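User: Structure please.
Assistant: Input sequence and predicted structure:
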Amino acid sequence: MAITKMMHMKASSKARIDIHLEHSINYILQPKKLGTANLAGGINCLLDMAYQQMKATKQMFGKTGGRQGYHFVISLKPGEGTPEMMYDIAMRFAKEAFCGEYEAVVAVHTDREHLHAHIVINSVNMVTGYKFQCRDGDWKYKFQPITNKLCEEYGLHITPAEYSKEPTNMSRPQWEREKTFSEWIRQDVMFCAISAESMEHFIFLLEKLGFEVKQGKHIAVKVPGMKRFKRLDTISEDLSRESLEAMFKYGDASLTTPVNRTASLLPVRKAVLTPYQRKCYARMYRLRLVENKRFTYKSAYLYEQIRKMHELQEEYLVVVKYDVKSYVELFRLKQRLQRVDEELCKVQQDLYKEHGKQKRACKTEEDVAAFEASEPEYHEKLEQIKFQKKENRRKLKAVERCLERDGSLAEAELEYKIPVDDMVDLAEVEQDEVPENPYRVQEVAEVGETALDEILKADVIMVSENEVVTEMAFKQVAETRDVEEEMVCKDGIIVSDVEMLDTVSDEVISTPANAKSDFVKVDVREDEVVKLPSDKEAYMRMSVAEKVCCYPFDTKGTDSAFEMVKDYFNSVGLSTDFDSVYEEAKLLTDYYEKQKAEELLQEQMEQIIEKMDMMGIDAERFAEYPVDVLSEAFDFGDMEYFAGIRMFNQVLDKLGVDMTHQERYEMFDKIYEEGMREKKSKNNRNNR
């Protein structure tokens, strides 16, 4: 794709004020950059005298300070275009963009896989004497459109609309991330399209994967981390409405498999892992598990984490290589790597100084010959130092990411939603089954070829979505049909199975039509009662906390949440399809469990403070107590590391202990490791 980059040259404060302008011109005119094509030219100036003419223009108008010039780069897609084509585009760009009023140097470089042209212009207008003005939006509305127009004439790829449309609202990394997402979306959407039976089923599968879907003339999707909806037909022509309909009709789901983007974990698995190393490995395992069970975990929600899979593997390898066992050791490793980086930078600077000193010491031809003979050795040493710096900084970045990830609430939430225990070979994990089509008309089993059965079938098919029939009602009708095959006699009057079905449904959910109460009572097994608004509008206005208070989770637990929500939705006319009920039940249970976890944490915190008071531990002298005493007071037991440090911080905040974050982490690590050591010793004694 053709893209235009724009840079400027500031005035130098150390040497000549316009030295950056001279260096830029000399750089773009290097013979090794121009290659055999050797395409370079000047606009309003001679190529060999370009710098001197630009400098004279500045002096003539008294504009020698401030920005000295501007540097533009136009790059084509690798493999596209010719040097002559690139030169024509660059020259026409310079003339159109700068109206022929600025001195400019144009050069085409052929030393990379992609052709690119450099344009260096003077900052002072040679006609008016005014400085070149670069305002916000010029790239979007002025320079890139010129490049796109010229490249379209040659049939070259241009910058995608996603990037050029709103560049001020989307950074380059964000745009690159969304480009990656587009390929993943194409793979997942294609899998859903081949597996779907209809457009409704297709949309249902996309939502089950975690996509936010927008329908209209076109279908567009978005996942967390994306700024805009992405139209499917712009990702691939195979995803237009017409192509999708063909796939629904002729696709064979048995021939398609979902694409896994994360690499296999087997090459990076270590036989014996410390608790901290196991935690790092579990991060990778969790994302791999998400891809195997994508419908269960709504894998589209985790695109951003899956994109960072290679970073997680890099972090894990660093942790294992340096045998990091705790958060404190990881922090110390960061400090070590920083010191190594400083030493390498110092060695590199000394090498530069020594090389410059040797160059300035050359007085004769023999000195120059000796200096040139030592150049290969110098460059070899320099490349070796640069390579060491690059590798060291790569490890340093991995450690910094790992430190940041340990304190991330998003990572903690992911661990809570997808806990992992025994990490088995993921090749043995059964793939997710594609959810069935909830919109498919359920056929009624034939009992006989009687006219009554045909009527029953027709009536059942005509039941509207709001007139949802419970499974209990179907069961009771089936039992009645076994006893009386064709009809039921009630009070001497013959009624059809459909009428019996309505009667049973009324018995299952009894909501008097003339009821004047603002709440409806829904029976939920074992005589539990749910008190919720009798109209769906009032229910939709309630907060999650208010809804949770109305359901008997304290006595029934969260296992029966699905049945309770389904019964209530049925009573007020809300949709009772599986997805709607499941989402509501999950929202309520997640909130309830989080609330209970907070209550448990507060209760444990109060118990710890009370225990510390009984042991005579003074908060003002907290850091002076032995680790084994503090470990006995906290007694973390089987508590997970992240939850433990959270409770530790809350206890210290409650007691008003004055410690920095780093001191707290170091203290917690000692207490936590002591608690794990005592627990292990206790288990060993019990096993003897």
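The radius of gyration is 36 Å.
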